[in-house]
Structures are given as C-alpha cells and as structure tokens.
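Priority: low. Protein: General L-amino acid transport system permease protein. Input follows.
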Amino acid sequence: MMKQTDNSGALALASDTTRQSTVFRLFTFFGSKTVRSWCYQFLLAALLLGFSYWLYSNVVDNLRAQRIATGFGFLHQRAQFAIGEKLIDYTPRDSYTRALAVGLLNTLYVTVCGIVLATVLGFIVGIGRVSKNWLLMKVCVGYVELLRNVPVILQVIFWSVVIRNLPSPREAIILPGMGFLTNRGLTFAVPAAHSGWGWAFIALLAACVMSVLLARVARRWREHHGKMVPVARLRAALIIGLPLLVWVLAGAPHELNRPELRGFNFKGGFTISPEFTALLLGIALYSSAFIAEIVRAGIQSVPKGQLEAARALSFSPWHVMRHVILPQAMRVMVPPLASQYVSLAKNSSIAVVVGYPELANISNTLMNQTGQALEAIAIMMGVYLIISGATSLLMNLFNRYVAIKER
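Result:
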C-alpha cells in the first residue's frame, strides 16, 4: 500500500514538472522579441485582409444592387469621343485602350517638359539666391516666395486666363524668328517632313550615349591614374558633329513648314496649344520655386573652405561653381529633387481644369460614358504609381552615380 502511494506521488510530481516545463517553454517562446514581432505582423496582416475582404464584398454587393457591371472588358469598346492633342494616331472609332494610351503619352510629355523647365529655372534661381548681387538675390527671393506660396491649381488657371486674353490670330503678336503668339497658342515654323531629320535625331541620341560613356571612361581614368583627361570639347564636338554629319549625308533637308493665316486661324507649322502652355507653365514654375530652395540649400551645404581654396587657385566663378560647388552639392540635392519630380508628375492631373487631354482628363470622360468609375480610378492609380516609381528609380540611380565612392 505504501509503495502504491509513493508511485502515485512520484507520477503526480513528474506530471506537474512536465506541465511546468511546457508552460516555461511556451512562455520562453512567446517571450522572444522575434516571435512577438512575427505574431504582431501576422495579426495586423489578418486584420488588413479581413478589412479588405469586407470592403470588396460591400462594393460588389452595392454595384450588383445598382446593376452596374464590373471588369475591364469595356476597354475594347469604341471610345466615340475626339481628342484634340495627341502624339499617336487616334480617331473616335478607336478603343478606350487607345484613348487611355493617348492620355498616358500626353501625361508623360508634359511631365518630361515640366521637369526640364522646372530644373533649368530652379537651378538659375537657386544660384541667384546665393549671389552677392543684392538686387539679383532679392528678385530671386521674391520669385521663390511668390510662386511656392500660391496653390499650383491657381497658377495653372492664371496662365490659362492670360493666354485666352491674347489677341486673335488676325491680330497675332509677331515674334521675330519664332512665330506668332495668339489666344490659340504659339505657332511657329518647323522642318518639313523628311527622313533625314529622323536619322539626325537618332544620331543625336547615339552621340549623347557615346558622350556619357566617354565621360565615365575619363572619370575612371582620373580615379585610377590621378590625371584628368580633357574630354569636354570632344563630347561637345561629338554631340554637334555626328547629327550634323548624318543630316548632310541624308541630303541636308532645309525646307520649312511655315504657318500661314487662312480664315480665322493659322495653317501649317506647329502650334503649342493654350491648354498645354498653361499647364506646363503652372506646374513648372511652381516646382521651380521649390527646386530653387533645394539648390540654395545644396550650395550652402558645401564647406566654405572649398570655395576659398578654389579661389586661391585662381578659379573663375564659373569653374568654381561647375567643378567645386555643384558636384558636392548634388549629393545633397538629389533626394529632395526626386521628391519634387514625383510631385510634378502627379500635379499634371490638374490638366482637367484647363481641358488638356492627359490621363486624368480622358479617364474622367471614360467614367462619364461607361460608368466604370472604380476601374478607371484603378487604372489612373496604377499608372501614376508606375510613373512615380520609375522617377524615383532613375533618381536613385543618379544618386548612386554622384555619391562619394569609397576605395
């Protein structure tokens, strides 16, 4: 009897010990910081998935109740609306997909033009902000304070109103050597259609690529051998000479398609529309004010000793800025510049207020005709996400290029 009691007590003690050991292991397992982190993330992901499913089910049920079809099949239907400005061929008989492609190209076109114009103006004003000339510095300060404190949509509307109040084509403002400025836009002569221009443009692109490669080779040579190879003139000659040579070999086409006043408008030449001009000026000037401040901050981040050393070596102001200040300032400027470029790309959607047919404007027309609002908005969100991501990627690559290389 005594032995049975001892055995049962031993078994109970062993069971309690095992239970305590299991609890201790569980406590130790969930007490780990890594395990807790994974559990919190799993719980958050489950909540987000549950909320997304509830939201999706709610939207689908409401659409079915209102008998609104869903899906992207409507993209193959005929658009049945005209588009005034287009970079590719388009007619109202084309599909909605083609219409969205026209809007996308217009968005990219105004974005690229805006980035170039905003960058040029921003660098000029930013350098003027640190000028020793009091008048120039104050003018640049006024430029920045005025443009960055006025909403961009108001600036776009302002330029649209200004352009619309210009004279009619019959009373056009003549710009010597440029063209005619009217309330229909800026009209100027362009080279007549000829295959030689296309080949010259291809040669220009090839020359730019070769120039970049030549600069990289010269840079690596300087890093490895400590000697600078003067390639600036060679690069300039390459960019100018190669397209010129191809143009001459292609027959040197020089005929111009000149605009002529016929009736109430000009025929021929090329016209930059009021809508495009107002949008471009609005978003470019607005962004240039912020870029100017980025440039100013980048220049002022360079130690003054660098500037004094360059002046002691008898560098001209241009060479000091070109070879000493800007290369070091770019390392500070590139990250915020990327943010401004992304913001400019998204601001292009303001075109809807002036009627320029970019992606948002065409998507709005698409929604009114088909009722497929969710799909159209999803397409716009995806496109702007890709544009922003591509812009950030390119700027990150450029940032790696200008970053300090440690040996």
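The longest strand covers residues 179-182. The beta strands are 173-175, 179-182, 185-188, 190-191, 256-257, 260-262, 265-267, 270-272.
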